[in-house]
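cron nightly-structures :: item 1 of 1
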Amino acid sequence: MDAAFTAEQDEIRRTLHELMNKRCGPEDVKAAVATPAGYDPALWSALGGELGLPGLALPERYGGVGCGITELALACEESGGALAPSPLVATAALAAPLVLALGTEAQRAELLPRIASGALTATLAVPGEALATALGLTGDNRGDWSGGGRAGGVQARQDDRHDGGWRLYGQADQVLDGHSAGLLIVAAHAGGFARSRTLLFLVHGDAQGVVRTRRTSLDETRPRARVELRDVAAELLGSGEGGEVAAALAVMGDAAATVLAAEAVGAAERALERTVEHVRRREQFGRPIGSFQAVKHRLADVYVQVQAARSAAYYAAWAAASGSGERTGGLALAQALEALRTAASEAVQLHGGIGFTWEHDAHLYLKRATGDELLFGPVHLLRARAAESAELFTRQEATA
């Protein structure tokens, strides 16, 4: 493993760092999340149209930059430090890899260039609260999480009246950026009990029968929506092999977890930096509170935890890009979410009375840590799944 960054990777980080410092301060974030879209369209235009971030990990033949998961993770580390509200994670880490892995050549040619340019935003719609399971992060994704043929979830049936097309009905309750995405990749149950399987379908966000409602969420920088599908016409993504879908979701889930881990590391580092700046300025008993040994020890512990999380995220990115088949994204995400939660909690504590006010900037990081853990975790299940996948306890029993 070569731990050094290339000149291109350093340039990506530098460019994003400058852009975020200039156009995505705390007040910009608060203003953006209050808009109907939940993000600043001008900033997204810069990220997509000018910098090409949605297509960073897409092949050049589909309009992408031709880089990989490492470059996307580094970009998200910088956007995470600013808590930038944008559809980047949903579009580039959840939706685009599925179209690339499973889509037909016609579907790739139609969708990926528009995604790469930022003209089309997309997301993955999974029934209920099963996103982490669907991605293989907290459980086996070969089960019936999409509905299992029973009431609830999203059901799919073939429509013989329209050349064997598909119709979807049901709802997904926690769809990341689901209220604004131009394209929905919907996981639905098909086949009934005779041939039960989960398939993925392409649904345009403004299609007839689609009802989308933005939901109130703890972390407004990660807007979520309820998506109701009322007999909606849909296009099957790829060939429709259920096993192929589960495998693609697991691979994409590991890569998405790596990107999210890097993003959480960026947020944790920025929360720590803001706290250090505060304790250097805030005086008590005639001296900065940062000069007290107890405060130094607390922040040193946070620093070590953030650096450990960064190492885990970088290793996961390297493993995903190397093609070795080693999947460490879930474990890196657990480490990063724990570091972010610790850094955010210390930020609230060490800012004193003002830090406990709900409107203070420190709470933006606390909300991100809590919201991400609810959506992609929790941490103990991420670690349990990583141990299960590595057969850690099975090996220990065999040697006992």
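cron nightly-structures :: done
Residues 242-281 form the longest helix (40 residues).
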